[in-house]
Structure formats: structure tokens, C-alpha cells
Amino acid sequence: MEIHESEDHEFVDIHIERRRVIWISAVVLAGIIALLVLTMDKVRELGERIVTPREYIPPKSIPKGIEIPDVYDIKGYAAASPKAFDRFLAKQDFREIFARLQHFLYINEVDGVVPSFQLLRQGSDWQTIDEPPFALPPEESWESMVNTLRLLQEEIVPRIGPVTVLSGWRTDRYNAKAGGSKTSKHMHFCGLDMVPERDFTREELLPILRDIHRKQGKKWNMGLGIYKGVRFHVDTCGYRRW
Predict the structure, then answer these.
(1) CB of 223 within 8 A of CB of 173?
(2) Where would you find the membrane-spanning parts of this chain (predicted)?
(3) How far apart, in Å, are the Cα atoms of 189 and each of 103, 120, 122, 192?
(4) Strand 77-80 and strand 192-196: pairing?
(5) Contact by Cβ (8 Å): 107, 143
(6) CA distances from 15 to 20, 25, 27, 125 (A)
(7) Among 142, 95, 94, 88, residue whose Cα is nearest residue 119
(8) Ordered alpha helix ranges (H), 63-184
(9) Fewer CB near the last or first residue (10 Å), C or N of the chain?
């Protein structure tokens, strides 16, 4: 009689388990390699952001015969123009400082929220109080503006569209002569007064801004002020509303 020996099941189980371990190890190794590649890409991108300077690029030359005003009328408010800003930079050789500010905003990914020069507008009444239309904040204050710009970028611009800044950084002197609060967030480079570029009525704009403040204000430590017409104030240096 022919005798058939039964298969060694224990050997088969060990063989299957070994293949399973090898397969799992291969998957884990592939995941680690993919993670390393992604991490290296991010490190390279961050390195490029940190070491790549953002130099001040002067405005393009103005064609002959075209007159660019020093002052714009923006929804009833006076706003100093880029031409006036370029003259401000040249007057005291502020270009290097402004280039550093632009680079700071760039590495914090908020350089495209509004044109950088608008952040340095002191206000819309500089002609009345005989003060410069622009001023440069001290470098230690720059960080305060990052969250305010992120608030614009993530909450306000998606709801109302682009904005034009009428007042950003203010010197103590300007703020006092303009009748600003002694605790004004403009003097900390944290507050911005602005108007929407789109044609909102006051009745259309206010409910949107108040809705943003009600739903997202605490998260951002948001201050919201409503002024005449469609001008409004935003900062991220104290949750409040007026």
C-alpha cells in the first residue's frame, strides 16, 4: 500500500508568517522613504524662502504725458499714492528697510494680502495735520502685523473681496495730532483701517463684518471698529468691537 505523508502545516504557517512580515516591512520602508522625500522638499522650500531676499522693486517708469497723482480719492478718503511712497523712500533712503519688511512678510506668507506700501500709510488726514503720509515701523513691531494680515487673508477677503488700506502704522506724533486713542493698535503695527474695493453699501457691509467677528473673532483675538461709510478697522490685539 502506498503511503502518503501529510504536509507539515507548522512549516507552512511559519513560511506564510515570514512572507507577511517581509511584505509589511516593505510597505513601512516605502512609507518612510516617501515621508523623507516630502520632508526634504519642505525643508528645501523653507530654505529658499528664508535665504531668498525680496528686494524693493521700484515702480516702472511712467510714460511721458501721463500724470500720476500724489493723492488718490478712495471712497471719499485721501490716500497717498505709490508715486508719493517712492518719493518718501528716496527722501531718507528707506529702501533697504522697506525691502527687509517685504522679505519678512514674504517668509511669513502674507506679502500678497495687500500691497506692502499701504501698510505704511499713516492715515487719510495727513495733509490737514501736516504730517508725512507714510512712516516705517520699528522692526520689533513687524511681527504684530502678521496675524492681522492672516485674518484678512483667511476671513475677510474671502467674504468681501480685496481691500485698500487707508491707515496702517502710525507714529505717536501722528496719532496724537489726528486725535487717535492713546492705546491705538496702529502704534503697535497691529491695526488697519480699510475700505473694500467692491461697491458695498454700508447696509450690505456691516452685517458681513459683524458676522465674521461673531463667529471668528475670539479665535483671532479680533478687534473690529466701524467708522463712517464703508471704512472699518481690524486688528488682532484684543477681542472687542465698537
Answers:
(1) no
(2) 21-40
(3) 17, 9, 11, 8
(4) unpaired
(5) no
(6) 9, 15, 19, 84
(7) 142
(8) 82-91, 95-107, 126-129, 142-151, 157-160, 172-177
(9) N
Q: Which amino acid is at 19?
A: R
Note the pLDDT tens digit of each residue in 139-189: 999 999 999 999 999 999 999 999 999 999 999 999 999 999 999 999 999
Q: What percent of the chain has pLDDT over 70?
A: 73
Residues 31/33/34/40 CA torsion (nearest 10 deg): 140
Unique residue bearing C-alpha cell 509589511: 24
Please name which of 74, 123, 111 lies closest in space to residue 233, comparing C-alpha atoms. 123
CA-to-CA distance for 196 and 149, rounded, in angstroms?
A: 15
**Pair 132, 85: CB distance under 8 Å:** no
45: which residues sit within 8 A by CB, 6+ positions away?
A: none
Residue type at 224? L
| In the predicted structure, residue 4 carries a pLDDT above the cut 60 | no
CA angle 192-111-214, nearest 5°?
Answer: 45
Q: How far apart are CA 190 and CA 52, in angstroms?
A: 26
The span from the CA of 105 to the CA of 52, in Å, is 13
- Answer whether 241's CB lies under 8 Å from 217's CB: yes
* Angstrom distance (rounded) from CA 192 to CA 119: 8
Kindly report, residue by residue over 44-55, the tens digit of the pLDDT: 554 444 434 444
- Closest CA relative to residue 123, chosen from 135, 107, 109: 135
- Report the SS3 class of residue 149: helix
Q: Nearest CA to 148 among 140, 138, 156, 160?
A: 156
